[in-house]
Amino acid sequence: MKRVAVLMGGLSAERAVSLASGEACVAALRAKGYDVAAIDFDAKGGVPALFAALAPRPDVVFNALHGRFGEDGCIQGLLELLGLPYTHSGVLASALAMDKPAACAIFRSRGIQTPEGRVAALKDAHDVFEAPYVVKPTREGSSVGVLIVRDRDNRPPLAQDWAFGDEALVERYVPGRELTVAVMDGKPLGVLEIVSDRAFYDYDAKYAPGGSLHRQPTDLPDVLLRRAEAVAVEAHRALGCRGVTRSDFRWDDRRPDAEGLYLLEVNTQPGMTETSLVPEIAENAGIDFPSLVAWMVEDARCGP
Questions:
Q1: Where does 3-87 sit in CATH, by number?
Q2: 3-state secondary structure 203-258
């Protein structure tokens, strides 16, 4: 029986979501017959407690951490040093995907359309584009800290409202519809559309019950769906990802076919909660949740 340590919690702003993801994965893996240990990585115990929890040397570490230190290459590097196979992407791919400006530069080098943007000092964010525009932390996940500044707003975010450093990624706002694509083992699983009454698919829309509706887009051009899947696979490969990833898009539906499709980011540690997108896409593709997480365990390795 394979011994699996599910690593959850963490030190980032996404700790609560990571705990929910981890608990769901623990239950699913136990249902599949794995010997599972749940490890809550928190600030109180820190790295010494994590080392102690991993001392029995599991066969695989299921990484259910989100955000900083969990999906930015840090925990991946630690697991590499310990020689433990782990799920999801390796050190470099994780670090690149989490660094939004670096990832966008790679995508553009591959001919992938992303929103126009640049890194600016927070105090200068309002000088980059006319409203509406988007202000993002350069290294956060799950839309943490993302703001849309519109024409009617009196001011851009001020330093006292912002906990993500002195710089931000400022992007031109792309109107339209939210799409997401799951990639598993280098192949697309399908496209979902996210419908929310919020301005965009923010943290609450992602994780709060009723925050958004997910649907298989039946009214979209087939050429758009195929393009979204192809771009998701290309982005997955461009970053050197492995396992399961999720690519998020905006589609400006005022433009024909796939011309208005913009890749926003690739998530190397997609959420695995009851409201998460990848499990729903996998279910629509005929892969139930326990089978999905079991595949991740069997795909785990130590290295890129």
A1: 3.40.50.20
A2: HHHHHCCCCCEEECCCCCCHHHHHHHHHHHHHHHHHHCCCCEEEEEEEECCCCCCC
Q: Which of 207, 227, 243, 280 is catalytic?
A: 207
The single residue of 248, 250, 260, 262 carrying the catalytic annotation is: 248
Q: What crossing angle do the helices spanning 74-82 and 91-98 adopt, rounded to 10°?
A: 170
Catalytic: 202? no
pLDDT at 112 over 80: yes
Q: Which CATH superfamily is domain 96-114+176-287 in?
A: ATP-grasp fold, B domain (3.30.470.20)
In the predicted structure, residue 158 carries a pLDDT above the cut 60:
no
Catalytic residue among 22, 133, 271, 280: 271
> What is the per-residue pLDDT for 77?
96
How do 167-172 and 117-121 pair as beta strands?
antiparallel
pLDDT of residue 197: 63
Q: Active-site residue 267, yes or no?
A: yes
Q: How confident is the model at residue 209 (pLDDT cuts 50, 70, 90)?
A: low
Q: What is the pLDDT of residues 55-78, one digit of tens each?
A: 999 999 999 999 889 999 999 999
Give residue limits of the domains in the chain. Answer: 3-87, 96-114+176-287, 117-172
Global pTM value: 0.89
- What value does the mean pLDDT take over residues 202-214? 57
Indicate which residue of 89, 94, 267, 276 is catalytic. 267
Is residue 142 part of the annotated active site? The answer reads yes
Q: Is 207 a catalytic residue?
A: yes
Is 140 a known active-site residue?
no
Q: Rounded to an integer, what distance in angstroms lies between the CA atom of residue 210 and that of residue 190?
A: 22
Query: Does the active-site annotation cover 203?
Result: no
